[in-house]
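quick one, two chains, predict together pls
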Amino acid sequence: MGDDGDRVGHLQRRPNYAHMAVGLALVTTIVSMHLLLIRGLDLSALVAIIVFNFLFVFLLFPLEGTLHRKTVLLLVGNTVGVLWYIIQLSFTDAFYFLNTETFRVVFLVAKPLIDFVWIVAVWSISLSMLTSYKIKRDVLKKC
Amino acid sequence: MLILSVAFVGLVALITAYLTRHYIFTLAALYHKEPTQQSDETYEPMVSVLIPARNEEQVIERILQRMTELTYPKEKFEVIVVDDASTDRTGEKAKIFAKNHKFIHVIQRDQTEGGSGKQEALNCGLKHVSGELIYCFEADYYPQRDIIEKLTACFKDPKIGAVQGRVTVLNEPDSLVTRLVALERTGGYRVDQFARSELELITQFGGTVGGFRRSLIEQLGGWDPDILAEDTDITFRIYLAGYKIKYVNGADCYEEAVNNWRSYWRQRSRWAKGHMQCAFRHMLPVIRSKNLSLREKVDGLLLLNVYFVPIFAALAWILGAVLLLFQPLAWTNFVWMFVPISFYSSVGNFAPFFEVGIGAYLDGRTRICCLIPLLFLTFLLNVLICTTAFLYLCISKITGKNRHTWTKTVHNGNGSRHI
């Protein structure tokens, strides 16, 4: 029943604190880099990146899965975030150049929402990849 | 501007309180050990199953067939189908089962007394039950064979007044709507209900796939026909009476979810109106109650107001935008950035996207996680639904119209393909 077949219930009962610690260190480095190196990053983009990293460290790093996989997913997520921001910036620059006031207002109103689109999408796909890894490992164990 | 700023901060604080609550729920679901629910053969009281049915000819046979397959001893088990003035062959089909199985009974309500809502059908059924425990199932549901044993085991604890099992969507692959409802259910039951039960907060009785002590429901005077969300109403009446509700995650039951946006709108409108009615009715009693602990009171108030949150989130969005346009301050911008987290929430329990995702993870679901960004669509729809429901209730209050029309969800029986 359902598109994934039977639900595979399991009892993951202890957070992986070691992975969380590594994740926290990674995230601190990433956010510091944003603050120090990319000074042009605006407040909303920074908030979005912090929220994404917070969710990743506290809700994905403690789960089952290899540290290697989680780190790659985190780095890919941050790259997507920065790219998302750059695309946004190029659009805003283009429209500012055209001097359309309406766009400025629409963009201002929709900006936080636009910032969150990538967070939810990347976080969900990362979780999906971790889950599939876990299922594959469980199946292999059973075999 | 000062008033707007204060209102904005207040709304964001409220949304943050909900998000924090659900973050705690998510952690609790991840790291609380799931209790292994053992059925106890020494505790097998007489139980009655109530199935209110109105125009359910497409699905009534499926549930009655399933009732015959349940493993609970049949001599301690009865099924009462309340045919609520159906205009189709529901009663006829149920009677065929009653003829072949002694433990199935059919109560026929005619057009003059029936058809006014599920609560009245349940109250009618209540007069005919003989069980010590009463379970309720919808006609479109399909329970596990040993569900009664799993749920009944909880009643050994005298403090437990009601139990709730898990609802899972049967017809999930049918459409985008059913898939999104499945996501909502995952967050709502696997994480939200589980955590509330484990953290000893207010576990919600969902109106179906659950049961109560007969003595308790009689003491409470049955179901209130004036409330559209009879499940939320009975939940709070049980807690206010000093009893608890237990959620049993292992007691699974499949439901046929609404499969198009129109049905989704109608069903959620009824839930929203009913839940808001309950909020108006129970907020003060919850605050004053001596039977509730402080954490139960806080959670109870948050639960009661959950259908107002989409309205608050939309208001916070608009207020933030207005403040930024006319008085752009750094703090407004910073606070405003957090509001969209709440836009990816399932309404009904306000499960944010991360809670839904963790629910899917705990169930070992992979592909369904990819639909999480689409929760934004249901959230937008629910902003409209909740706002309309709120306005409807306000107008009803002003005009003095206290009886509300029960809109029935139509089940087409297509879920049977997935069994």
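The helical segments of chain A are 17-36, 43-59, 67-98, 101-142.
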